[in-house]
């Protein structure tokens, strides 16, 4: 921007002209015709015809109007909106009054969504402050009256003249509009500076006339040319996106990718390593679309109340409170304290169940017997219970060393092992029943995955609770046999061990869940029955990181509602499109993306695992393995190569980062031919390894024949070093 600032300040510049669309003003779209979707929705509502194809007819009418202009008025270089709607009326088959109403809807939509491009407005203000004559030159079919109104509404004051192609009938694209401006103002070309986003019409054409020009690409072009964050996740998908998602993506790009951050952009990262951008860009569309889906399902099922399961329902409930004023018939909502630990007493009611509570449910083997009895069986260890376990040679102050011995001790307790379950089930039943009126039809939202909370609430309340899940696993498949219905937002129930679900469960729970309080450990009765809510397990640092992500996602919902208002109801997006960025982030993160969660840890009261890391010391210790793999790859690349000695030339290779070796055609051909004969002294697996990992194979070669081939390869192409390569 320094160059254009110097040009504006240049005393020889008398006049500064600006383009309007995507320069002074932008719209929340990827391309201008995306806005026709909102026009279409309003037109369909106005006409009472949900199938009225406004978008297709409007696009066709404009093209026909331009084609007719070339024939009927050969000297005209641009059309106006009246000419477009004259053709539109022919194909639409509606009356004059309806055409006037439809045209007004389009103009109203244009005016509503034209907003100041915040990083360009200071340039405009600078030109005014330096006393330059500021003018507008725009190629557009819209009337100048709309441009004047839109610019003034967005704080652009001090514009002396407007030159609009639809009225003057000359265009920037041909250069004739610039010639007209120079003649009208009676100035020399080098006294004028033009600023715009179109390289041809705003830069090359005026430059040919001697007008000084400056190119400021629109934000969308900067993003998709790789000058912002990783745009490759959208390759081949943009044209296939539904209009609402294109609008939301355009809104996001204009909001957060217009200006250069102090540290610059990383085009390998999805979030630029910024948790707020992650929340706004990846989490925002997901939460927004998820809440609209929940409300749609609630309306379809005629629900009276939606219970959001703590803690996974925290962020969706917050977002619903933002969106509800733009939705009709929103049910009553409730934040239900239910957790894996709170569900256990309802799942296990017999002595056989008490056995299953250990044999079926995972638990941390490092926790003491006292902790297992307290967390899993809701039992406090007294002297009698301690003596019982001592008879089975079990020290309750130590971890379980012999699982079978521990199970035998549990069985020998008899019905007394069920005392904790029975008490908690009684308290839970009273608590959950009190949340709903007898006649209310109830639905719940939970992240997933087995329908446990839905079954417990149905059992406790005696209601046919309807379940809404982000996703579910195969364990949920028996739910309908119990007379319970459910729907999934992201994907149908699947076996996660057989087929990838397309996102990290740990990461989606991190996005949705509350961080300021811990899990529900059970119930207690004092003056009234209340859930026992533990303190948050997140460290202050981790909580701040996640809170910033939550803020970004909720800000997206607020700002979309603020901009689109009543048009928010038209923004319907598929789950696949809404979740695309977050799915790519969790499944294929860059190192910069993964490092946001490098030290984040959480816990599970029910299993006794109080410190579970998203990215741990190993893949097995990481609950976000894709994030771990990304960080590990970056670490490996940064490590220096091992110093080795070339035994043939007796030279030591210098330290440095290992560089990838690309074999030439001759080397590859030799390897293919050698592979045919190598089967005589090599195993089939080694031959395959040689073909597909050639450099590493020959770098570690020991067999005389393989060493000979390596020497030949080194003689005809890039050198393969001798390595004691560690896997």
TrEMBL record:
Tell me the domain of life.
Answer: Bacteria
According to the record, the signal peptide region is none
What InterPro entries does the entry give?
A: HAD-like_sf, HAD-SF_hydro_IA, HAD_sf
The record's SUPFAM superfamilies line, in alphabetical order, gives: HAD-like
- Stored NCBIfam families: HAD-SF-IA-v1
List the protein's name: Haloacid dehalogenase superfamily, subfamily IA, variant 1 with third motif having Dx(3-4)D or Dx(3-4)E
